[in-house]
Amino acid sequence: MRFCQYISSNISREVGRLRRWTGGIFRRRYSDVVVTHELAAQAGRLRYLLSHGVKEKLCRRPQDWPGVHCAKALLSGVMKLEGEWIDRSAFYEARRRSERKGARRGKRPRLADHTEPMVLTLSKIPAWKHLSDEAYRKAIADMIGDILDEYEEQRLAAPKIVRIAVPADYRPDKTKSSPKPVCHAASREERKRFHQRRRDFVNAYLEASALLKKGARRALDRFPQGAFLPPVGLGPLRSPPPASAA
């Protein structure tokens, strides 16, 4: 959750600076979709991510994508992505101090002085967590091989060297929009079980929320595990009246 919050805020602003865009770059707020414990469901999501770039005719292999992509790291077994972190807050404060002191141009703070390496460590999907590192790498290689076979026509039509130059004011004529699934499941039975668990969670939350609005202290223990308390102004919580009270 915190990682996706970082993506939606910090990286969104960085892309905006590079492309001279204002506002967020993501259409909707982040909301996660549960992937069930099934191997087919988890492998299907991983395959979907690895196929990006190839199925759109932008590159011939997933590992050829020049931007951020996990294919190279997974194939090599390194399981790490390296990049840079820019501490914009520290850079902003340093620049303000420099302006107040009237520093010369050559002594002004540089962005490079507030940039440091950042490493993102990848994890195995839970369904393949038991595999050795070499077996996991082979499973990824087989999956990418299947992707290349499925999208052979698109792959051959893609450029050998990826060079994508998008104007800063570019806006697509049509965007794809589809309803968000409640969960990613490989079987109807598992999807039904998830829907039932979700209904139980929502009902328990609503019951605890209604009790909390009445000021009952015991409502704090009624919320299901993992739930956030609703933002209601209750004032001091009180114990419920005795059952015999009128």
Q: What do these coordinates show?
A:
Among the domains are: 1-32, no CATH class; 187-227. Helix content is 41%, strand content 7%. It has helices at residues 2-19, 39-50, 71-76, 88-101, 133-150, 152-157, 188-213, and strands at residues 34-35, 80-86, 115-121, 183-184. The strands form two sheets. Strands 1-4 form a two-stranded parallel ribbon.
Summarize the structure.
This protein has 246 residues and is mainly α. Helix content is 41%, strand content 7%.
What's the end-to-end separation, in Å?
46 Å
Overall body shape:
globular
The helix content is 40-55%
Estimate the strand proportion.
5-15%
- Please state how the strands of the largest beta sheet are arranged side by side: 1-4
Look at the helices and sheets and give the structural class: mainly alpha
Radius of gyration, Cα only, in angstroms? 25 Å
H/E element string? HEHHEHEHHEH
Total strand count, please? 4
The average pLDDT is 83
Specify the biggest β-sheet: 2 strands, parallel
What is the count of helical runs?
A: 7
Residue windows where pLDDT falls under 50 for at least 5 positions: 234-246
